[in-house]
Design a protein that fits this description.
Helix content is 26%, strand content 29%. It is α+β, with helices and mostly antiparallel strands and 213 residues long. The protein has a domain of 147 residues. It has a 7-stranded antiparallel beta sheet.
Length: 213
């Protein structure tokens, strides 16, 4: 009887372990009623605050991207900096998002919401905070270790968006070189003058006639 009771328990435990392993091997995501929301649907009162953290053997990144809604959507990139009070956000730049960029970011959200095979040593952690009039409306969290986001067609990764903003800031800060000054033409040479009634002298020839063979 004891053996018959233990067998189902072992099966249940095995099922739980397999389910846990499947979730941990795929992208981990938790959400609060915001699955399927799109950046393209944000109105002028709504915004999306993204925290992007990436950890690997040779790098560690932590960035914030705030996307404002409305007809013309913008992305503001910031990075956290610690001071005596706590953690503040240091602005890093702003860029207007084209319709193609918005579509690429929506494709990125679909990418994170669908589990993928994880076999990479780089782990990206993404937190989405959906806001309306600055008040939280929902949150989504993802963990991705697939290293495939940069190679997925139609997807605009957070890394690429941050690099674009940073490159634009560098171009803005670059000093503007003045155009080269145009060289002044040489002053006109004075023409030789001759007295009134004086016949013009013939031009000298080379070689002189006395030296001709």
């Amino acid at each position: 009887m004891l053996r018959l009771m233990r067998a189902p328990n072992r099966v249940s435990l095995l099922v739980l372990l397999l389910a846990f392993g499947t979730v941990s091997a795929a992208q981990e995501a938790t959400s609060q009623g915001d699955e399927g929301r799109k950046i393209g649907d944000l109105n002028s009162k709504e915004s999306l605050r993204i925290r992007f953290q990436s950890r690997g053997d040779y790098h560690s990144h932590d960035r914030f991207v705030t996307i404002t809604g409305g007809v013309a959507k913008t992305a503001i990139v910031a990075e956290p900096s610690r001071d005596s009070v706590g953690v503040t956000h240091k602005a890093g730049g702003l860029v207007a998002l084209s319709s193609a960029a918005v579509a690429g970011l929506d494709a990125l959200l679909d990418y994170y919401r669908n589990p993928r095979k994880e076999d990479c040593l780089v782990v990206d952690t993404i937190t989405l905070n959906w806001l309306e009039n600055g008040k939280p409306q929902g949150i989504e969290r993802f963990s991705d270790a697939s290293c495939m986001v940069e190679r997925t067609r139609g997807v605009l990764s957070i890394q690429r968006l941050i690099r674009h903003v940073q490159e634009k800031q560098v171009r803005r800060k670059a000093p503007v070189q003045p155009p080269p000054a145009r060289a002044k033409p040489p002053p006109p040479q004075p023409q030789p003058t001759r007295a009134k009634g004086q016949r013009p002298q013939p031009a000298r020839q080379w070689p002189p006639r006395s030296e001709e063979p």
